[in-house]
Amino acid sequence: MAPLLLLPTLLLLLASSASTQAQKNITLGTTLATQGPNSSWLSPSGDFAFGFRPIEGNNSFYLLAVWFNKIGDKTVAWYAKTTAQDLSSGQDPIVVQAPPGSVLQLTMDGTLSLRDPSGKEIWNPQVTGVASASMRDIGNFALVAADGNTKWQTFDAPSDTILPTQVLPCNQSPSKSLRARLDITDYSNGRFLLDVGTDGNLAFKLVAVPSGHHTARNGSQLVFNETGRVHFLLTNGTEINITSGVLGSMKDYFHRATLDTDGVFQQYVYPKNPKSSILGGEVWTAVSLLPQNICNAVVSEYGSGVCGFNSYCTFDGTKSQTVSCACPPQYKFFDEERKYRGCKQDFEPQNCNLDEASALAQFDLIPIRGVDWPLSDYECTSTCWKKKLHLSNGNMADYVQRTVLLKVPSSNNSQSEFSSASTKWKKNRKYWALGSSLLLGCSVLVNCILISILVFGAYCSITRKKAQSAQGTFTYKELEKATDNFHEVLGSGASGVVYKGQLQDEHGTYIAVKKINKVQPETEKEFMVEVQTIGQTFHKNLVWLLGFCNEGTERLLVYEFMTNGSLNRLLFDDVRPNWNTRVHIALGVARGLLYLHEECSTQIIHCDIKPQNILLDDSLVAKISDFGLAKLLLTNQTRTNTGIRGTRGYVAPEWFKNIGITSKVDVYSFGVILLELVCCRRNVELEVTDEEQTILTYWANDCYRSHRFELLVEGDEEAVFNIRKVERFVAVALWCLQEDPTMRPNMLKVTQMLDGAVAIPTPPDPYSFISSLP
Q1: 657 assigned to a ligand binding site
Q2: I need a labelling partner for 551 at 20 to 30 A (CA). Which of 183, 220, 403, 613 fits?
Q3: Residues of the signal sequence (predicted)?
């Protein structure tokens, strides 16, 4: 009788379960908001959630994500990226960041649409005819048609993680591959891509990808099966294990496999009941990793390798299994917080004019054992491997049979002697490549000493012929084909139109082609100036010239393609970029100008610094572009007389006076841009309610004098929170905007003031000439 008595209860439980499952089907018209109780949709068990997750350390944006809902840190397993259809540029998808107040809706028309507070659509999965949606217990969010077929699912658009039962086809599209994030709290595209090799003996490759380099084996699949094993399934049915084994059952543990920020592919488990787990603790435990030592597993001619340029990778093979990046002696990281960006020298370059004896006295060679930079060779003899900027794929380990001799300033050198030599060196630099290195290798059969001289550092003057040979030469037909007969216009200026193109190389490199309108003597000179100018520069905050075309009457310049367009578009769009992004852009522009003015072999005055000439890469790093108006000063010149150049609103007052033009014209333009970055508005806005706010430079000066900085960033919570930095940036801008160019700081002083490295005296009113900058 007992089973019969239990029957109603069992039926009731089944009905309750069915009801719960039915509630998990998301119907048309349902919405999610970034905040509040309706910010996510749960799976039936509650193990997973789909919806808005605040980005750690950034209160201004949310991820549209799938996460493990029942664990403490709510680990993200998927996050939305722009789809292929969204990207007219055709390049790697970028992470979708939704501002507060955004709404996700499964519309009555059968589409899923994410819109910002103004109603502008910022993401949709590009499918229609959806009847419902569901967040499933396997961690897969799906859009379903009326017949029950899946129209779209997160399992088909992976981010950096793969979950049990998920299968990824390995094809030519990076959007279908696992891509590491940039940092643990930065979901931007990182440098590593899980890539299937074309070599039958290679299970997979980890490629550090600064661009779209990607190879794949068509037909193979990456499979995370229901037993917790990750493997490649080849077209002939062969299975190649990726993870070596699994600790813990699928019943008792959550599982994920993630391509981590350092490029290591690891499988993790998390106990569903920590108290009864043999692992203990509410943490993810790595149970398998590949490769075992990534420092020697990733060696590629594309990108810098595991660590940034001019640095090297070390791996702790003990229980911690940690990867670290380090700089050579007397080098320092570009960014201490993001060491993967590489290293730069922390000393002045060598005086190229010294004779051999003087040079040897001025510098020491420091031996570094067990380190190697295997690529970047530009010359090799029986006793010498010479290397050029930048060193890549650096690796330090006990098994590396190499000793590098690194050239650094002599410790016996007095500071005054070194400064004197550096001053002379700046006046006439030759072209050197990189530091000094001694590579030693021994065996029973061969006893060979390989001496590599790596002359770290200096960029020096080069002739026009050398400048041209440093870049690639393109034919007009190549560029015509690459741009689809100059079809898509990216922008235009006084000297020409810029078109988008794609090279027919193995990587399908995207380019920006500037076509000079009219070949007149004046334009011809401008073309050659731009080729020569950019040919002599290399800096992370300057656009990279890939090559040029000088064929018949055609003059074209080929640049790297900047995925995020110009600062003009980012800064004055409907959605205000977050404060930290604007700060980094300001610092980037300042450092780019510092390089042009003081660190280049020949001083370069840009003459047309404005938001349209500041381009942004996929990480929103600012790069100064368009050197067509640049003025090259010889070493014995301090100023030049020329016609008025530049753009209204950014032009320094001395352009309209009969006085010489110096690099301070760029400082003035930077001051205007700095205020625009702080306030997120154009310098001149006629349609404002308060007439006093029409000219930003005047208004900012008034606000500074009255200590009302909050008026400049009204409604910008992040900037208000950092009001001290706002005050500092406004003060720097007002120094840059001084009427008298001699009162303006140089760009070295500007960068120091922006960084907070030096105190900022109160700037005088730009319309008075009472005080000057100490």
Answers
A1: no
A2: 613
A3: 1-22
